[in-house]
Amino acid sequence: MKNRKYIEVARESVSMYPMTGSDLSTVELQELLAVLLGRQATPELTGNLASMGIRTLIEMSVQELKNEGLTELKALELHSAFLLAKKFRSIGKADSRYTIRSPEDAANFLMDEMKDLMQEHFVALLLNTRNEVIAKKTIFIGSLNASIVHPREVYKEAIKHSAASIIVSHNHPSGNPSPSPEDIDVTERLSEAGKVMGVELLDHIIIGDHQFISLKEKGYI
Q1: pTM of the model
Q2: Which CATH code, of 3.40.140.10, 3.75.10.20, 1.10.240.10, 3.30.420.40, is assigned to 103-214?
Q3: Is the terminal CB of the chain with fewer CB neighbours within 10 Å at N or C?
Q4: Is the pLDDT at 175 greater than 70, yes or no?
C-alpha cells in the first residue's frame, strides 16, 4: 500500500509537466524513475538510482541495472528509455547548437545532468564565436582544488576544438552552490590563463540543487 501511494504521487507530479508552466528542472529524476519502474518502484530503490545521476544511469547496461536490484524486464525497459533519450539528443545536436547568452542559459544546459551527481564533476563548455556550444568535456571528477584542475587540461580541449571561448562549471553535491575559496582560486587561474591563450573564460557556473551561482556575476571574472 505504501509503495502504491508513492507511485501514485510520482505519476501525478510527472503528469503535471508542462501544464504547470514549470521547466524540466522541476521534475525530479526519482519521480521519473518511479513512473518507469511501476510496481517495482520503492523510495529506496529509486532514491539509490537517482543518486547516481542521469549521466551514469543513461550509460548503464541491462546487467548493471539488474545488479542494482531491477528485474530483467524493468532493467530492459529502463535501458530502452535511456536509448530513446540518446537518440532524441543526437537528433537535436545534429539539427542545431545550443546558444548561451546568459548565466541562466548555461545553468539550464547543465542543471538536469549535474544537480544529482554525488561527486563533484568539473566540465568545460566549448563555444564558437556565436556563443554556440560545440562540445562539452568533463575535465575532472572529485573534490575541486587548484592543484588538480590545471589550466593546461582545460585549454587543451579548447584548442583541440578551435573554441573561441569557454564556460566552466562544477556541481556541489551538498546542493549549496556557494563558492569555496578553492572555487574562486581555480576561477582566477583559469581566467588569467585564458587571457594568455586567447580563449576567454566567460563564466564559472556552480550547480546546486535547482539553483546556481555565476562567478562572473559575483565579480570573480
Answers
A1: 0.58
A2: 3.40.140.10
A3: N
A4: yes
